[in-house]
Amino acid sequence: MSQIQIIPTQPIAGQKPGTSGLRKKTSVFMEPPYLENYVQAIFEGIGGVAGQTLVVGGDGRYFNDSAVAVILRMAAANGAARCIVGQGGLLSTPAASHLIRKRGADGGLILSASHNPGGPEADFGLKYNGPNGGPATEAVTDRIFARTLDITEYHIWEGDAPDIGLIGEAHLGAMVVEVIDPITDYADLMESLFDFAAIRAHLKGGFRLRFDAMHAITGPYAHEILENRLGAAPGSVVNGTPSPDFGGGHPDPNPIWAHELMTAMYAPDAPDFGAASDGDGDRNMIVGRNCYVSPSDSLAVLADLAHLAPGYADGLAGVARSMPTSAAVDRVAAAKGIDCFETPTGWKFFGNLLDAGRATLCGEESAGTGSNHVREKDGLWAVLLWLNILASTGKGVSELMADHWARYGRNYYSRHDYEEVDSEAANALIADLRAELPALPGKVFGALTVERADEFSYDDPVDGSHAAGQGIRVYFTNGARAVLRLSGTGTAGATLRVYLEALETDPAALHQDPQTALADVITAIDAIAGIAARTGRTGPDVIT
Ligand code: G1P
Ligand code: ZN
After folding, report:
1. In the chain, pLDDT over 70 holds for what percent of residues?
2. How do the domains of the chain map onto residue ranges?
3. Measured from the CB, is residue 369 less than 6 Å from ligand 1?
4. How much distance in Å is there from the Cα of 125 to the middle of ligand 1?
5. Of all atoms in ligand 1, which is nearest to the CA of residue 366?
6. How far apart (Å, rounded) are the C-alpha atoms in residues 377 and 369?
7. Strand 444-445 to strand 284-288: parallel, antiparallel, or no bridges (unpaired)?
8. Among residues 114, 277, 322, 371, which one is catalytic?
9. Residue 131: helix, strand or coil by DSSP?
10. pLDDT at 102 over 90
11. Quick one: pLDDT at residue 2?
């Protein structure tokens, strides 16, 4: 007879959740009791799971299935009443968020390292989402981290977890393991928000699309929604079979890693619309024929035209963007007379605004866009909202962008990433820049003069919580801006992110290459922060 085992353990250093849960090398997670300690710390940090219903699923990366089995055995041993699991242990992050909300679950465990590569040599991750379906707040992640530091034992069911390859219910001790189809509920939600008939007619009329699932979780969702329900031509979804190492690729939908899609969209016979999503399905990239749309611009266009989709026909209560995201959406919000909130990086900061009904649409420059339909960013949702807008207006992507910039001006935008920088050098760069901030206003760097400079902190207008140290901002007198912060999702060294923005309202200057339009800001921030000298790099590793 199987039973609960209580296994003595010791704290493991470094189990501190970052921007989005705990991410480490897969080999680190696979070495017992790394995963076990962290799962126990989650359960204790949220006050125990006795009698609770939890949603469990992940992006299918290497170790996903074994980790799901451990989580189920530990949930059972900690007294959970029910775990709802995606078939095969699979759930996209937005689908998991939806499931938590739809089923009234107490929370969920999502296994993913998002856009980081997968495989035995690559990355793994785990995060806890609360009953609203959103990532745990700072307060909850702090409590989880505190438990990792004083953990003495973990509880695990001795017997094997049931087969999660088959839809249906099984028992693990007193706990029910309910295996569900991971696609249908999410696809139904999408169908309730968008005008599928209009999109279907548009596709029938010859509009061609290409969706690159990057060998990740959105493949099966996109096959069902885009091809089966909307009638996109078979083959419109490419790289649509999830693989544990994402086909050996880097499942991050940006022009660098989704170069296959970029090549197709800039070819003579390019389809009308291209899109991609990331490892766990919460990010999106939008690209028209010969027209890449920056995520900040995408957020602004969606905020402007969301009312064309039935789910948003009543307009938006407000919008929110992360601080480093461009102010393009602010201009739309101002024109519409709605609130625009500026939050720290990370989707967890949008949760309260969405719950309180103060923001309807949210977005980040890192290819994340979403709305109050779930509490995560949502890749396919953004693709469908774009398709709805394209079908409703009958316009192409580049035409919509030109219209948008002509009306609102263009916030030229780019992010420069310096990856695997020596941690000490990166920390020193930020610390020295912080110390320099009061002396910057009035100083001239090349063509630009600093107007003001500060370090961003955030007071949540809903629960009053305070988040400090959320990125350094340098504003120039011409309206340009540079932001610097260190990534909270990397697993090796430090990643320095430099966010560059310049507003252009001259109608004759709206169609430049962003790197050219931003040249003065790039030069000025390098002079201010000494990026090249301190990182020892001649240029960024990734430009998006
Ligand atoms: C990155 C992005 C951030 C996003 C997060 C999770 O975090 O910059 O916008 O919310 O991934 O997808 P970072 O590595 O910058 O801490
Ligand atoms: Zn992701």
Report:
1. 100
2. 4-182, 186-408, 410-543
3. no
4. 14
5. 9
6. 5
7. unpaired
8. 114
9. coil
10. yes
11. 61
Q: Tokens in use for 371?
A: 């709305």
Residue 284 alpha carbon to ligand 2 centre in Å: 9
Structure tokens at 212: 């690159």
Q: Which of 319, 277, 282 is nearest to 133 (CA)?
A: 282
> 187 exposed, middle or buried (CB, 10 Å; 0-12, 13-18, 19+)?
middle
* pLDDT band for position 469 (cuts 50, 70, 90): very high
Model confidence over 200-212: pLDDT tens digits?
999 999 999 999 9
CB of 476 within 6 A of ligand 1: the answer is no
Closest atom of ligand 1 to 365 CA is 9
Which residue reads 């509009």 in tokens?
A: 207
User: 346 CB less than 6 Å from ligand 1?
Assistant: yes
Q: Which atom of ligand 1 is nearest to the CA of 490?
A: 14
Q: Is 389 strand, coil or helix?
A: helix
CA 164 – ligand 2 centroid, Å: 23
Q: What phi and psi, each to the nearest 5 degrees, are found at residue 361?
A: -120, 140
d(CA 180, CA 188): 14
Atom 10, ligand 1: residue with shortest CA distance: 346
Q: Is the CB of 254 under 6 A from ligand 1?
A: no
Give tens-digit pLDDT for 180-200.
999 999 999 999 999 999 999
Coil/strand/helix, residue 104: coil
Q: Alpha-carbon distance 56 to 226, whole Å?
A: 25
DSSP states along 27-52: HHHHSTTHHHHHHHHHHHHTT--TT-
Domains 4-182 and 410-543 share a fold: no
- Whole-number Cα distances in Å, 427 to 102, 267, 432, 498: 42, 42, 9, 14
Output the 3-class SS for 408-473: HCEEEEEEEEEEEECHHHHHHHHHHHHHHHHHCCCCEECCEEEEEEEECCEECCCCCCEECCCCEE
CATH architecture assigned to 4-182: 3-Layer(aba) Sandwich (3.40)
- Residue whose C-alpha is closest to residue 380's, from 175, 223, 516, 496: 223
The domain made up of 186-408 has a fold known as Alpha-D-Glucose-1,6-Bisphosphate; Chain A, domain 3 (3.40.120)
The verdict on whether omega for the bond into residue 33 sits within 30 degrees of 0, i.e. cis, is yes
Fill in the amino acid letter for 261: L
Structure tokens that stand for 33 in this block: 């009791």
> Both tokens of residue 336?
């519409």
Query: Fold for domain 410-543?
Result: TATA-Binding Protein (3.30.310)
